[in-house]
Structures are given as C-alpha cells and as structure tokens.
C-alpha cells in the first residue's frame, strides 16, 4: 500500500501575510522565487554581454582608425624628410 503522508509535513513552510491576507510559502515556492531571480540575473548578464560586445566592436573600429591615421602621419613625415633632402 502506498504511503499517503501529507507532503506539507515534509516541506519547510513559512506563513506570510499582511492584514487579513495569509498564504504559505513552501519550499517549492522558495525554489520558484530563486529560479525567477536566476532568470532575471541571466537576462541582465545577457544584456551586459551585448553591451560589452558593442563596446568591443567600437574599440576595434577606433583602433583601426588610429592605425590608419598613424600610417598617414608616418607617410607625411617620410615625404617631408625626402623633400628636405635629409635622411
């Protein structure tokens, strides 16, 4: 025969209420709240990764532009030296 012990006896329950409203937060509810908190944290982390990825792309773009400008400066300096006859 199957044991039909009340499951609430094995769960950690806490009474929560405000005024006339009362309900029980069971261990299962606590896990659900933790899961919701974890989902929220994952969503925030994903948003942060997207932001950081965009920042990284912008940084790469700026570094490439800086390298291009340095090339122009070095070419200009080289041309001026060659025009002056100095080495």
TrEMBL record:
Keyword Coiled coil set for record: yes
Keywords noted in UniProt: Coiled coil
Keyword Coiled coil set for record: yes
Lineage: Bacteria, Bacillati, Actinomycetota, Actinomycetes, Micrococcales
Organism annotation: Arthrobacter bussei
Pfam name, any one: DUF6752
UniProt protein name: DUF6752 domain-containing protein
Domain DUF6752 positions: 45-75
InterPro entries cross-referenced by the UniProt entry: DUF6752
Coiled coil: 28-62
């Amino acid at each position: 025969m199957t044991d039909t012990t009340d499951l609430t006896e094995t769960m950690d329950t806490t009474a929560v209420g405000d005024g006339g409203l009362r309900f029980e937060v069971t261990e299962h509810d606590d896990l659900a709240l933790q899961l919701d908190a974890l989902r929220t944290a994952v969503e925030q982390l994903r948003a942060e990764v997207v932001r950081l990825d965009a920042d990284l792309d912008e940084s790469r773009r700026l570094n490439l532009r800086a390298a291009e400008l340095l090339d122009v400066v070095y070419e200009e300096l080289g041309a001026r030296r060659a025009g002056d006859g100095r080495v």
